[in-house]
Amino acid sequence: MSAYNIEIQKIKKSRRDSVDFNQLKFGDRFADHMFECEYKNGEWSNFKIKPYGPIQMMPSANILHYGQGVFEGMKAFCHKDGKVNIFRPDKHYERFNRSCKRMNIPEVPKELFISALKTLVDLDRKWVPIDRFKSLYIRPFVVATEEFLGLKTSTTYKFLIITGPVGNYYSEGIKPVKLTTMPEYVRAVKGGFGDAKVPGNYAGSLLPADLALKQGYTQVMWLDAVEHKYVEEVGSMNMFFVIDDSVVTPPLGGTILPGVTRRSILDLCSEWGIKVSESKISVDELMDAHNAGLLSESFGSGTAAVVSPVGLIHHDGYNIELDREKMGPLAQRLYDGITSIHHGDAEPPADWCMII
Ligand SMILES: Cc1ncc(COP(=O)(O)O)c(C=O)c1O
Predict the structure, then answer these.
(1) Strands annotated E in 145-189
(2) Fewest CB atoms less than 10 Å from the CB: which of 17, 61, 90, 104?
(3) CATH class for domain 177-342?
(4) Does the pTM of the predicted model rise above 0.85?
(5) Cα 313 to ligand 1 centroid, rounded to whole Å
(6) Lowest mean pLDDT among 130-134, 207-211, 301-305
(7) Ligand 1 center to residue 259 CA distance, Å?
(8) Ligand 1: lining residues by beta carbon, under 6 Å
């Protein structure tokens, strides 16, 4: 029983029938309800689930000018028996609160986060797609709302959760994506906030991402901000490489997002007896491995795409060509392993799934 009393105002008529669940894209459809509460005078209050719709905020609100805010991205999946599985809520909550800390935002108590999440997803459970390649995307977020134009920490906030049914993240589906480096731009530096899920990281990546798209690439593969040579991550994915039968992923060092899917891959690999080295890897080492015929696979990991194969990496006029048609064997095994857990076809490790 939760200590948080959530008032529920139900929508008069569900909008679900107006959505074609066979044609879902990513991020453009929203379920009937949302959760909203406020922080003022040092505490969270006014817990409400209401129909999805506009929120009230003054034009001078901090988030609109200084960007004091954080967000999360997580998913719920449908099991064959109709149960709904919210994937790794504890890990998402931990990262959410770490992001809040970095942005000087008050902690959202775990019980509040989980209780709001469960109540909202349960109320809109008909919105969780049944299909294996689809899911309910869940977006918890906090925005600073104080009316004040001047650089200081807000004293008031809103914590909200919205959800919506989604299909594949990339238009390629689960076909290999094409990446390019862009050494003239960087995503994050040590001491900054590259390891927090906050709007500024993404706003700054939009111009380079658009330039990459115009040049025919799906996303930018970020290099480190100091030497411009070590692989960091991709727009919304952590990176993995298979070189000479060893698996390598860049280490968490404060500049990349500690992905929940990355963690799940490390856990599964360890369970399967596959060693993954968390170590720096330069784009030159990747090119050398490719030239020597040793780079057999590369893939990205993230909540949105789960496991996404990489078919090509462009760097400085040079193309690292991998399989352009299909996933490599490790990516496929991980994709199948994780999606089987999502959909209840495989036994999850303890604490991975919250079934409602
Ligand atoms: C910058 C960035 N890196 C990596 C990831 C992958 O993280 P996760 O697996 O938790 O979705 C994401 C997605 O949230 C991201 O935005």
Answers:
(1) 157-166, 177-180
(2) 17
(3) alpha beta
(4) yes
(5) 19
(6) 130-134
(7) 5
(8) 73, 233, 236-238, 257, 259-262, 301-303
Ligand 1 atom with minimal separation from the 74 CA: 11
Mean pLDDT rounded to a whole number for the chain: 95
pLDDT tens per residue across span 168-207: 876 666 789 999 999 899 999 999 999 999 999 999 999 9
Query: According to the CATH classification, is domain 7-167 in 3.30.470.10?
Result: yes
CA of 302 to the centre of ligand 1 (A): 5
Q: Measure the N-to-C terminal CA separation of the chain; round to a whole number of Å.
A: 14
Could you tell me which of 36, 70, 7, 39 has the C-alpha nearest to residue 162? Answer: 36
Q: Which two tokens stand for residue 331?
A: 């990516």
Q: Where in the chain is CATH 3.20.10.10?
A: 177-342
User: Strand 177-180 to strand 237-243: parallel, antiparallel, or no bridges (unpaired)?
Assistant: unpaired
pLDDT of res. 172:
64
pLDDT at 315 over 90: yes
Residue with tokens 């008529």: 13
The whole-number average pLDDT for the span 16-23 is 95
Each residue of 140-152: pLDDT tens digit? 999 999 999 999 9
Residues of the chain with CATH 3.30.470.10: 7-167
Which amino acid, residue 177? V
Ligand 1 centroid – CA 321 distance (Å): 24
CA triplet 86, 350, 88: central angle to 5 degrees?
A: 30
> DSSP of 6-44, one letter per residue?
-EE---SS-SGGGS-GGG--SSS---SEEEEEEEETTEE
Confidence of residue 350 (pLDDT cuts 50, 70, 90): confident
* Substitution candidate for ligand 1 out of 234, 239, 257 with most atoms within 8 A of CB: 257
